[in-house]
Design brief:
This protein is mostly helical. The protein is built from twelve helices and no strands. The longest helix is centred in the middle third of the chain and has 17 residues. The protein is elongated.
Length: about 200
């Protein structure tokens, strides 16, 4: 059966990824076991299950045999293909996170321009250092990693992974959901991160 994943050009494979995760956990299989059975890295399988596939591992998923995935999860032949196609054809565009969508000259589809993310990143770094907090500790506080915090502090936040430097992708959608955790960890006032993004706390 022909593989459909190489034809999926948007980064979101939420329907297939969600069902893979649900089935794998219900069967009690580890990510390592399923990834090995279908010839993927654990990182690639984890990305698929999360519903978001960064560009640096999209090629790995493009080589995934959907028939092998069906077999590894005990699915009827063609289930993976049907789920991937459904997500490709039926996904509705997500509404903007802010009423006025700001743009910059990078071609990225972010709700905030690069300068806003750089401003927030600098403020985060200043507060983190003042609290003598390491990047891994802050990463844990916002349910992320130290490497992710490094990218945040460098302003490497993108709405579209295709505009990100290889290996430096941090999802805007992912971070916006964690602003409240960030504020608590850095002892900021509620809403301060958004105000910094919007240029109100210069």
């Amino acid at each position: 059966m022909a593989n459909v994943i190489p034809r999926i050009r948007h980064p979101y494979w939420a329907t297939l990824g969600y069902e893979v995760h649900q089935t794998r956990t219900s069967l009690g299989h580890s990510q390592k076991k399923v990834a090995g059975a279908v010839g993927l890295s654990i990182r690639a399988l984890a990305a698929l299950e999360s519903g978001f596939v960064p560009p640096d591992i999209a090629d790995d998923l493009g080589r995934l045999s959907l028939s092998d995935l069906d077999a590894a999860l005990g699915w009827k032949e063609g289930t993976s293909r049907a789920l991937a196609t459904k997500d490709l054809l039926q996904r509705e565009p997500e509404p903007p996170l802010v009423q006025i969508r700001l743009t910059d000259n990078t071609g990225d589809r972010s709700s905030y321009p690069r300068a806003a993310w750089a401003r927030l990143g600098k403020a985060i770094q200043t507060s983190r250092l003042a609290l003598k907090m390491t990047k891994p500790v802050l990463g844990h506080a916002i349910q992320s990693t130290g490497k992710s915090v490094l990218r945040i502090e460098q302003g490497l936040i993108y709405g579209d992974p295709r505009t990100a430097p290889p290996g430096n992708y941090n999802s805007e959608k992912y971070l916006l959901k964690r602003l409240a955790l960030l504020e608590m960890a850095l002892e900021w006032e509620e809403g301060q991160a958004r105000r910094i993004l919007e240029g109100e706390n210069r």
